[in-house]
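Dear support,

We are seeing what looks like truncated structure output for some complexes. This example has three components. We would appreciate it if you could run it in full and send us the complete token output so we can diff it against ours.
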Amino acid sequence: MDIRPFYSGSKIISGSGALDALSFELASVNAEKPLLIASDIERTAEKTVAKALKATAAVIGGICRLQSGEKNSAKTIAETFNRFGCDSLLAIGDADLINAVKAARVELSFGKAPAEIDFTQPAPPRRSVPFVSVAVLTPEIGPLPNELILDSGACITSPLFYPDTVFIDPRVTGKSAAVSKRSEIAAAASIFAVFALSDTQAHPAVRACAHSALQQVCEAIETRSRAEQTRLIANARFLSQIALTGVRFVPEIALLPFLTDGRNPTETLKTLFEAALPTLSFAKDDLSQIVIKLVPNNNAGSGKQTLRSEFETALLRLTQRLVPNSAAPKPSRSELFKAFEAVKESALTAEQKNECLKILQIQMEGTE
Amino acid sequence: MEILKMGNSNGSKPIKTLCAAFLLRILGFALAAASKVDKEIRGEIALLPDGCLIGMTVFPFDRPGFKMPAMFVQKTSENRFRYIGSRTDNRNFDFLITFTSLEAALRVLTFRESTLKAHARNRFTIKGALITAAPFSRILNKTEILLLPKIIAARAVRRYDKPKKKHRKRICLYARIFTGI
Amino acid sequence: MKTPPYFEFQSKVQIFAGSNSLEKIGKDMEIRGVSRPMILSSQTVARSGLLNFIEKGYRPGMETGVIDTDIPADSDLETVRRLAALFTEKACDCLIAVGGGSVIDTAKGVNIAVSLSCSNYDITPYAGAGMVREKLKPLTVVPTTSGSGSEATIVAVIADTAQSKKLLFTSPYLLPNTAVLDPRVTLSLPPLLTAQTGMDALTHACEAFFCLAHNPISDAFALEAIRTIVRYLPTAVAEPSNEEARLQMAIASNLAGTAFSNSMVGMVHSIGHTVGAIAHVPHGACMAILLPYAMEYNARKAGERIGALLTALGNEKTFLSTPKEKRTQAAASSVRRLNEKLKTLTNGAHALCFKEYRSKNGEAPVTQELLPRIANEAINDGSIFYNPEELSKADALRVLEAAYEGVPLN
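Here is the complete output from our reference environment:
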């Protein structure tokens, strides 16, 4: 009867006109002068946000534009925040950028760099710094909302890392730099959701989030409007990530950073997922719910196939539809071997390493 | 990293502000006029506390330097509404509706979103006794039905209950709005 | 089942659920950097020894600042003031509320008084929507009834007895930081009360699903809650000491609470609150009786959504094998069947209609003469705004008359 704890630290505001409520939301946490931290490639999003803020009397303290892949920016963000007298952080960008803002927030609220703090028993923060993020579509599979990647590469988790509010506005998601990769992002979200469902010890709220994510993906497929489609995919991504924060360690996902050497992470994720799917266990309720979502009007489990095989077929068809098999070959033996060594050297715990290595071994057996 | 320092916000939206101010003004006049022509509305006003001050504003109404549109009405001793205007020094609101943004206000005032849907979507917040909320929402519905053609009003309200002598009341209502009597 | 063009959702409560969850509070306090809680509870809970489990989980250096069990059934300003002074006097740094709605609301009030600058612990300036705009001290909540879901809400209702009015505080900061769902807490709940609170949770979930502010996330929470309640409520009533059933009910109630605090409730609550206020019928009993009627009443505006509840009230097969036009009625019928089952399990104590309802001393508090007065007041309840269909006085009376006799609406 041991059930994993569940926590979702962000409020989600999703829909047309979501950004219009931005300064109202900021005011509700006593903030009116945010520092905008935006990815250099997301200029359209930055402009939309700035416009929404200006119209409602919020004063933009300043803007930090980050180049993609820029490292060690947390300190500069924190300094700029203090120099311009800002009172809140507003992030628009990919996972790297969000990670930098998380680190900057820790630095601002605790007065110390994240690496110097023991998050299992931190002292109460010196001040609270509201942190709001505006979602853009990003293809890379970054840290979860409760995770922070340190400069050393180590990953720490804490409920303190969640953004307070996540805005998902079709005006922004529809014009994200990675909008052409939206089906990939949808595929990753669905795979995340299915992995989350495979943890039978998870709190039922995890299942609720995962089902909701899959529902959003299914709706997105049927939606014609690009802006609305991207909003639904961003919803799905957010929900699948929240679901993943409440489940066991998933080695297939943990392996991704070790296998992305010049290849598309979603394709790798898909390969690992397809291999893992038959071995995952699910509650019967979940199987029928997913089949009915993916194959509407199908009387789940009543056909010739068993419910389980119907479920697997439906899922594989979905991922195949979203990420068609490309010409890119599966990870080669040497690549897998390299990952094998890298995992051994990584900051993962011994048990986690074992799980990852097992997966790599299975993959190696499949290669020549 | 490129760092830009930003100054004070000066990007108001004059046309949208004007539109919202105009529509709120019409609504204020309409509430006052409707309370004179419709007995049922007076019945609902009777449920409100005496001298009840009701406001409809757009965030950030109270922030210095910003002139956001607003509308205030007050209950009179004859169970009617008196339109006070777009500003009032009295801050003892019995019931205050604050739209979260100009866009949110325009969505509701142009009936793109029904009042109840907008409420469900947190497009506005309500401050004040809940006992005032239900009668005021019914007054608003009845006024909208009198004021607007059925095709628009039916979108703004949950159920279109046709009032008795609708056309006569509507003519009186418009006459009162335009003459200000 | 289309996603609405705009929605908001939040559930920023750390949830610990499981058989030894009370002991986990100590670890949670450590992560939050606090060590000296004020525990608010009721005398029954304090006598039952449940608080010892919390103290057992303390880390070195932690100790209870003070335990107070003198909390009235309706939280009021005077109690908040007294407790806030006590909190400061005993140098506490966080709050733990073990109890029902009033204990939890009082704890939220005390938290405002001690965390924000309140002169003489007067919290009235913070009454209203969104007036609390800063983080408060860590608040842990252990709900002792699986039904109210108040551990998941952003609301606190505190009475101002001097002015004889109720103050409503709403702010996202009033959400407790942690909710602890431990089956040991509800083991002593008698069968009838278990049935009523369970139906209260079911109503939260159903109304959250079909009322106006529903969204895809609250929908998923609601469906998950309904599935669990349908499966475990009869067991929890029939076997009060079944820990698994108790735990699942606590979890379901919390899920339903999360769902409805985001998408709100409708006419079952509007009418139910009024029946409770006028005829003093317990909240859960009103919910159980009225829920199927609200499903029938809202069929025209929200029929499809109410029909979709069938996937959780029954299963996917029942949903697919029922013709579209009959799903709403089938959903209402399955709630009625659940009520009948609970009636059998409680030896007839769980009422199916108002006519049947008997108070503890055997009286019938709801009479036909009272119905017009109830209808008149019900339409002024705040939850009416979220109901899909308009509800006039005449409509409310029609529903009440049917619910009195126990006959379907149509």
